[in-house]
Amino acid sequence: MRDERADGVAFVEAVFREEHGRLLAALVRRFGDLDLAEEVASEAIEAALARWPVDGVPPKPGAWLMTTARRRAVDRLRRDQAFAARLAVLRVEAERAEPAPAPDADGGLPDERLQLFFTCAHPALAAEDRGALMLRCLAGLSTPEVARAFLVPAETMAKRITRAKKKIRAARIPFRVPGADELPGRLPGVLQVVYSIFTEGYVASSGPRLQRLDLAEEAVRFGRILRRLLPAEREVAGLLGLMLLVHARRDARSGPDGEVVLLEEQDRARWDRGMIAEGRDLVAVALTGGPPGPYGVEAAIAALHDESVSLDTTDWPQIVALYDVLLALVPSPIVALNRAVAVAMRDGPEAGLALLDELAGEPRLRGYHPYPAARADLLSRVGRFSEAAAAYRQALELAGTEPERAHLRRRLDAIED
């Protein structure tokens, strides 16, 4: 027999997950305090968990949550006059900066999540705090959940989030979308935070698993929100397209026991074709209407990989050409490393090795295990096995996850037998 109350609780949690960012953003905009907004939002969901499974879900659950949270906030402010006075000043400042929002078309919450994105990703915050705050505020994860996402103790994460909130208050970081003149300078920071969350999900920096699908899926969800809120921004389309095209391979990237499955060995029938089609459409948007941005170019590279039926039939000349464009836009050693691997596929391992050797002194690659791993692979392909073994050992020392280390050990064993 189905547990109807459990089903009701699960539905409430799903609604809250969808509404959390909108609810929190609207509360911050109204009351000017992130801590207060989080507290009353939590109280509203607790009330919903108690009432909805019994009374049924209201027709406009977001509006119900907002009304409940707003009442809790007003009650709290009435009990704390000093707190109320401080928040009144903040609200006056916010109202001077921009007009109060109107309800959306169906009478629910106005969608102010874009303002919250820019607040969480403000350049005044420490880089390590931005992604944590975004997961806490926009994804609605608890502090222990965010701590697990970044593989740090909950106490450490609590301090980070508290530090970020204090910085927002002390620096009077405005809760607003930057103006048209500011947006080009601020949007890349927001996109970088989202992409950093996705990257940690795509290949975890440490731990027992290769992938953190929960993080990757949250980043994709953030990308979809940004795409809805900023439909004219081509780099937003590029980032979402890139994440979809890469995430489409998620089921084929690990074996039954969690082991690494390289691109050339993956069962491409397991790739998500619907996600690939959506990603390709976004690439077209990202590359149309002006010079391409970095995310649009990266998405185009990912699309070429996803369109090929095998590694051998991949359009490596076009991929190298796109890496040339990307390297001009983002002169990064990691981009140069990826380009060298593509050149090796196009022109042979010796050509790729020559390019990797040029990067040998790059300090930003010293702790980056894909660099010695790529050298090891190309060295083994040209029969320089002792050098390849040394490179594999170096990569083993640097690799963060156990599946990556196990993969490198197998490669090392294969050339030492």
UniProtKB/TrEMBL annotation:
Signal peptide: none annotated. Residues 186-285 form the DUF6596 domain. Residues 120-168 form the RNA polymerase sigma factor 70 region 4 type domain. Pfam families: DUF6596, Sigma70_r2, Sigma70_r4_2. Residues 17-81 form the RNA polymerase sigma-70 region domain. Keywords: Sigma factor, Transcription, Transcription regulation. Belongs to the sigma-70 factor family. ECF subfamily. This is RNA polymerase sigma factor.
